Amino acid sequence: MFEILEKRSLNPTVTLMRINAPKVARKAEPGQFIILRTDADGERIPLTIADFDRTSGSVTIIFQIVGATTEKLNHMNEGDCLQDFVGPLGKATETEGLKKVAVVGGGVGCAIAYPVAKKLHALGVEVHSIVGFRTKDLVILEDEFKAASSKFVLMSDDGSAGEKGLVTDALKKLIDSGEKYDRVITIGPLIMMKFVCKLTKEYGVPTVASMNPIMIDGTGMCGGCRLTVGGETKFACVDGPEFDGHLIDFDQAMARGAMYKPFERHAYEEACNLFKEVK
Predict the structure, then answer these.
(1) Which contiguous run of DSSP H or E holds residue 149?
(2) pTM
(3) How far apart are CA 93 and CA 150, in angstroms?
């Protein structure tokens, strides 16, 4: 069983959990993900590995409470055990040959961007981290990013944290000031990644985007996580989750993701009502 060793709220809608999963921790690398079930009757959901400790055998996940399963997961506590915790899945972030990288994260996507920045920094790469949130109450992992970055820029939509504006504003400012990046790695909402990639394409900067579409089995069998990249169908679970951002059909990905929003909302409301009845 996969025991919850630590549970911590990072903001009103985002929770960190550290899970006892030594076999996963032994092989995990930044950019990869796991699939978990809270109980025997639960659905399978993918969550990116936010951190890992090979010595203690623990894996850290960070999730936003948006659907029924994340609501159920958030009701679990330290000492409780997850039914399944499978991984590591997907391809690890490619780091070979990089000397200077901009890591651009948005919202809860920063939980995915952080381990990438951390590994690059440990390898001696000059890391410029740009992270964005709607408001200061939603900021997560600020100190962790600062420790893993040569340059750190915090942006917020309303100006309540860091500088007011979008991550693309900060990235453009850095590029225009003369910063030359081997690669930009962007992780966050699809609309954010779309415009980061649009910007870097104009400047000719190679860019990788981490995709997290609907996923079921995580082995390429179901086809639920399919994306169009460079005119070809790819599966995020086995071909990704990172792809060339200049080749991704973001509009198609956003349209497919929106198809499931009503179902997700209905399941979330049912789960909330269930917990209210239990109380």
Answers:
(1) none
(2) 0.87
(3) 19
pLDDT tens by residue, 193-237: 999 999 999 999 999 999 987 777 777 788 878 899 999 999 988
Residues β-bridged to residue 34: 47
User: Which tokens is 30 given?
Assistant: 């930044």
Number of H helices, E strands in the chain: 9, 16
Selection from 42, 94, 65, 23 nearest residue 34 by Cα: 23
Q: Which amino acid is at 62?
A: I
Strands across the sheet containing 100-106: 163-164, 151-156, 126-133, 100-106, 183-187, 207-210, 242-244
Both tokens of 173, joined, read 């400012």
**Would you state the torsion angle of the CA atoms of residues 99, 105, 111, 114, taken in this order, to the nearest 10 degrees?**
20
> How far is C-alpha 215 from the geometric centre of its chain's CA atoms?
14
Cα 269 to Cα 259: distance, rounded to the nearest angstrom: 17
Over the chain, what is the mean pLDDT?
90
Q: Residue 238 corresponds to which tokens in the numbers above?
A: 């086995």
Give the confidence band of 157 by pLDDT, cuts at 50, 70, 90: very high
Distance CA 256, CA 221 (A): 18
